[in-house]
Design brief:
The protein is built from three helices and seven strands. It is an alpha+beta fold. The protein has one domain: RutC-like (60s Ribosomal Protein L30, Chain: A), CATH 3.30.1330. The strands form two sheets. Strands 1-2-7-5-6 form a five-stranded mixed sheet, covered by helices on one side. A two-stranded antiparallel ribbon has the order 3-4. A hairpin with a 2-residue loop joins strand 1 and strand 2. Helix 2 packs across helix 3.
Length: 148
């Protein structure tokens, strides 16, 4: 699902050969539902990103794994909409409510960028909009030459 803005801003813009994506959070755009765990993802996705079937493990790891997957899936869809692919992304700025989530997030990121990872900035922040259920946000920049 392509990332849609939740307020008055553009989800992405082209400027010359560059595509700039606003920060992407794990919110289903049509319903406004925040992705909270594996159960909010398409069937079978959880098993591909680390769902164990153990209640306590999945309750702890599920939110960051599910939100990470949803965000990268949205970035991928946005890049396709822009005429490119996720491989055109060369820079990420990642905002975390808790930096201890980074290793699990990084495992999901590696699935979307299996070869050369984008250059990266990682920051811990005290809060994110629209609620405390949002635990990671990712901003992306891509190089995608205009077709002439």
């Amino acid at each position: 699902m392509t990332a849609k803005p939740l307020a008055r801003y553009s989800s992405w813009l082209r400027r010359g050969d560059f595509i700039f994506l606003s920060g992407v959070i794990a919110v289903e755009p049509t319903s406004g539902q925040i992705i909270k765990g594996f159960e909010d993802l398409p069937n079978g996705t959880g098993l591909t990103i680390g769902q164990t079937g153990e209640f306590s493990v999945d309750m702890k790891d599920g939110p960051i794994l599910a939100q990470s997957w949803y965000i990268f899936n949205s970035i991928q869809a946005t890049m396709i909409e822009a005429g490119g692919s996720i491989d055109d992304v060369f820079k990420l700025v990642q905002y975390f409510r808790n930096l201890s989530d980074f290793p699990r997030y990084n495992n999901v990121r590696r699935m979307f960028f299996p070869n050369t990872p984008p250059v990266s900035t990682v920051v811990e922040v005290s809060a994110m909009m629209p609620s405390d259920e949002v635990i990671v946000e990712v901003e992306a920049t891509a190089y995608l030459p205009e077709k002439k």
